[in-house]
Write a structure and sequence with these properties.
7% helix; 3 helices; eight-stranded antiparallel β-barrel
Length: 256
């Protein structure tokens, strides 16, 4: 994969119990952000598709100190009719073979715009009608069904890259997907079981996982380190090595 010649990390402050790193790292390209806050002027748009339309096989997650593999899928994200910064969320999570449904909210707390547009490798998107590009940040709280096994509550902060096209639609920004450190939909926070006093680290994201320590050894793409394979990552390793059955499992729509 081709790496961008200049990158920076946008640091979004987090106050998350149990996280050793107090920052959520979100990779963005050469651009810098405008100083102005644009939340109020962009709340008229619908951002819901940013969390539902991405190919879930590239969404990776962790839970607990051993970075047990978490699979998570946001199935629907519906904008509140009275509070445009709020989205009502429904989805499913899976740890090992335990699947739980959850519901909750995402609240957009900030929307910032890039000063300059980025168009990807060889400026592929230069004539695609991109009007604005930005990043939103917010907070989330998802409660799993308390009647299900090993259920609890996810909560934390998130950030998502997006762009506005000439049709006035908000689109998931995968323009820099070919770059080595590309990532999007970064969720960082905790999970706590309904019947437990223990709060666990719980993070996930598209292509990369925020605050994943030594788990990710990949350069051009996410790849789990050997020491973590026993915590649910063995199948992904087999898929990376082109095992057909493992690839089939990674493609499986387990939430249906």
């Amino acid at each position: 994969m081709k790496c961008s010649t200049a990158i920076f990390l946008l640091l979004i402050t987090l106050n998350i119990f149990g996280q050793t790193n107090p920052k959520l790292l979100v990779w963005v390209t050469d651009d810098t952000l405008l100083d102005k806050e644009y939340k109020e002027s962009f709340l008229k748009y619908d951002f819901g598709a940013l969390w539902t339309e991405f190919d879930n096989r590239y969404t990776y997650g962790i839970i607990g100190n051993h970075f047990q593999r978490l699979k998570i899928k946001i199935i629907s994200a519906t904008k509140d009719s009275l509070h445009p910064e709020i989205y009502h969320i429904y989805g499913k999570s899976m740890v090992k073979n335990n699947i739980c449904s959850f519901s909750g909210t995402i609240e957009i707390t900030s929307i910032r715009l890039f000063k300059n547009l980025h168009y990807g490798v060889d400026e592929e998107y230069k004539n695609k009608g991109i009007e604005k590009q930005g990043i939103l940040s917010g907070i989330y709280r998802f409660a799993e069904d308390s009647l299900q096994t090993h259920a609890g509550i996810f909560e934390g902060r998130l950030s998502t890259l997006w762009y506005l096209n000439k049709e006035g639609q908000i689109v998931y920004d995968a323009i820099e997907q070919a770059s080595d450190n590309y990532r999007n939909n970064q969720f960082a926070g905790t999970w706590k079981g309904y019947h437990s006093t223990v709060t666990k680290i719980c993070n996930w994201g598209d292509f990369r996982i925020p605050l994943a320590g030594g788990l990710d050894m990949g350069a051009g793409f996410f790849s789990p380190a050997d020491g973590y394979l026993q915590y649910g990552w063995q199948n992904l390793r087999h898929a990376i090595n082109n095992d057909k059955q493992a690839i089939k499992e990674e493609y499986r729509e387990w939430w249906k």
